[in-house]
Write a structure and sequence with these properties.
Blueprint lengths: L7 H6 L2 H14 L4 H9 L19 H23 L21 H4 L8 E2 L12 H4 L3 E2 L10
Parallel strand pairs: 1-2
Helix pairs in contact: 2-3, 2-4
Amino acid sequence: MDQLTEIPLFVMRDTPLRSLYRLYEDFCTNLTIMGFESQYFFLHPEKRWQVFEIPDPCDFDITRYTILASLAEALADACNRRLQFGLHRDGKIDRNKVAKLEKAPLWASRVGPLPERLFLSDSHSSKSGATIAVERRNISVAIGEIYRTP
């Protein structure tokens, strides 16, 4: 995955929604690319790559849709952590310049919890990496990798 982001045609045709689905794949399979993918998303300064602009996937699978909503909210939080450390979406570091914080997409706030607890194994993160967005939707998994800056 890391090499694909260096190919101009891949970057040009890529979309925020495709990136969110790649995060979902890692979330379910522990490929450990979540840190790279969230950094890749963050380094797109274009308006369409703001977390708030991620379109509603309208996914028919309720479990997948719930996970996507949780990941969108966690991605906004991960971007905000980078911004608060002085990292900016254009790749520059400036601790004196206050950046506009990211917001989760509206559709994500309308997604409720799963009816039953979902337990996903996680071999590359500790439980402390779990976010409120995931826990409040009845999902047990650590997603600390999304906050990692490669």
